[in-house]
Design a protein that fits this description.
- By secondary structure, the chain is mainly beta.
- The protein contains 8 helices and 35 strands.
């Protein structure tokens, strides 16, 4: 790797940086920042970078950004990478960050990363807030709407979710939650447990570790009923099959927390630190995906850096039973097969899809796929030749990969790649519906606007791309995420206004699932990204 010497051109660059407020030592190879600039950069890093590169910058989905690596690239090269992105899956930031912020971040990642504090159970209890007492919850919906076809939509950068009436195409509420909400979940279908009105209560996890409980039966101003911060950086949440408990997974501190599902009081903290599958101790072992298992009183908890899936029995939380399954490193997003027995999860930096059997609590299979698989909530469908299959997009390459996932009826096809479809660009989400003839994939990770702003629609019958739909041509905007309505007749997509995400310029564009023609638009949204339909998510409809 080329090393940059401090010549006259470097001196000029350093002077320019200093003029922009970034203090650079021009007589040595060590960059520096003022205290104010360091704090600003630390915030930007948390908001934009830590998810892929890690709080301590050791890397996972993204590259290792510790100073011994970043200094080799030098200021100028780092600025270009941040500005334009890479073909390997890092998107461009020139439409999100200013030139001064890009320079600031290029300098910041050459400095030693700060180590954040821990978070105790006592501190979580201090940050537990109840806005509506459970005794005051309504006994029937108060708004007269079909709440089972509500969509809960992430409004990323303003720290809110929007509740949208899927029948009337109306925004019901904007609810303040944690920053950059990542996932929302409710009680999901369980073979051995039952709750009344599943899908009424939703649990929202912000990237700042703020977990919020939402009651869809309330009037809009009272839908936010409780809140607890369980980490400083977090990603996922899940609810027990009986609704008694909720679990939140932390990136930092690396732990998971079990809370009372009714009151949101934090009850138990379990560390995720440990020895990985290579026999090395990992301090930053982040908890990525957390899912309730449909066939047992347990959660699946993915240990990203350890390369393990933990199956956590919640029938006795005072004496937790945890089965640790060795798989592959950098586990991230996943989804169940149609039977609810097998969990399919991306080990994205290992370029594998991992399958675990929740009945035997053992690794079932590992499927070699392409660069950085990322299925999001995933997709299952029936292929004419392979039978039942699951599929994923990839962060690192424009490709949809499908594999057989029916070891009973199609044993010869099970856990083997069925087919691949080359798309125009790397994507983040894939989605379908049992009643749909198509699979939809976004291409959000591609740096070219025309591709980044387009979705591709693939025929289940022919395996070919039948239509490319460009959602927007506005500079700095992107197309992202797909969700069907409750009966599968509509496809909801997001126009993510990345460059002015704190303005209500985002849209949801709705398409007819059969004709693929535009049907409606919902405007006035703040950076809408992920969308969660109540009926589909509760019933594992993928």
């Amino acid at each position: 790797m080329k090393k940059y010497n401090f010549s006259l051109s470097a001196l000029g660059m350093a002077v320019g940086l200093a003029a922009s407020g970034v203090a650079v030592n021009v007589t040595a190879a060590e960059p520096t920042l003022s205290e104010a600039d360091f704090e600003q950069a630390k915030t930007i890093y948390f908001q934009r970078c830590a998810g892929c590169h890690g709080t301590l910058r050791k890397g996972a989905t993204g590259k290792n950004l510790e100073p011994e690596n970043t200094k080799k690239l030098g200021q100028e090269r780092l600025e270009k990478i941040i500005q334009y992105g890479t073909e390997g899956g890092m998107n461009n930031f020139d439409d999100i960050l200013s030139q001064e912020e890009i320079k600031l971040m290029a300098t910041y990642i050459q400095l030693e990363p700060p180590i954040p504090p821990e978070m105790s159970l006592a501190l979580m209890k201090e940050r537990h807030k109840v806005f509506v007492e459970p005794k005051d919850y309504p006994t029937k919906p108060l708004h007269g709407r079909n709440w089972e076809n509500f969509f809960l939509v992430i409004e990323r950068d303003v720290g809110k979710i929007a509740v949208i009436d899927g029948d009337k195409k109306e925004v019901v509420a904007h609810i303040p939650t944690g920053y950059a909400v990542h996932v929302l979940k409710a009680v999901e279908h369980h073979e051995g447990m039952h709750v009344d009105n599943p899908g009424r209560f939703w649990y929202v996890m912000g990237r700042d570790g703020m977990m919020t409980k939402v009651d869809l039966w309330q009037t809009p101003e009272k839908m936010k009923v409780a809140q607890t911060q369980v980490a400083y950086d977090a990603r996922d949440v899940a609810v027990s099959g009986d609704g008694k408990y909720v679990i939140g997974g932390g990136y930092w501190p690396p732990h998971f927390v079990i809370l009372d599902g009714m009151t949101m009081e934090p009850l138990k903290v379990v560390s995720a630190r440990g020895v990985n599958i290579d026999g090395e101790y990992v301090n930053e072992s982040r908890v990525a995906a957390v899912y309730d298992t449909p066939k047992a009183p347990s959660w699946l908890v993915s240990m990203k850096e350890l390369g393990q899936m933990w199956q956590v029995d919640y029938s006795d939380i005072d004496n937790l039973t945890i089965t640790k399954m060795d798989t592959a490193k950098y586990l991230h997003d996943g989804f169940f097969d149609p039977t609810g027995r097998y969990f399919q999860i991306a080990a994205n930096a290992s370029d594998k899809m991992v399958v675990v059997d929740t009945e035997t609590q053992k690794l079932e299979a590992m499927i070699d796929v392409d660069k950085k698989p990322h299925p999001g909530p995933g997709a299952n469908w029936i292929d004419p030749k392979c039978g039942p299959v699951g599929g994923t997009t990839h962060l690192g390459v424009g490709k949809v990969t499908a594999w057989g996932n029916d070891p009973v009826g199609h044993k010869d096809q099970a856990w083997k790649i069925c087919y691949e479809v080359e798309t125009d660009g790397a994507g983040v989400f894939i989605r379908t519906h049992p009643k749909s003839d198509y699979i939809w994939a976004d291409q959000t990770k591609h740096p070219e606007p025309e591709v980044q702003q387009s979705l591709q629609v693939i025929s289940k019958e022919t395996r070919e791309i039948v239509k490319t739909i460009r959602l927007t041509e506005v500079e700095g905007y992107a197309a992202v995420h797909i969700e069907f309505n409750d009966d599968g007749s509509e496809v909801w997509t997001s126009v993510w206004n990345r460059k002015d995400s704190k303005e209500p310029n985002g849209e949801i564009i709705i398409f007819d699932a059969k004709t693929l023609e535009e049907k409606a638009r919902i405007k006035g949204l703040f950076a809408p990204t992920g969308k969660f339909n109540v009926y589909n998510r509760v019933n594992h409809v993928t």
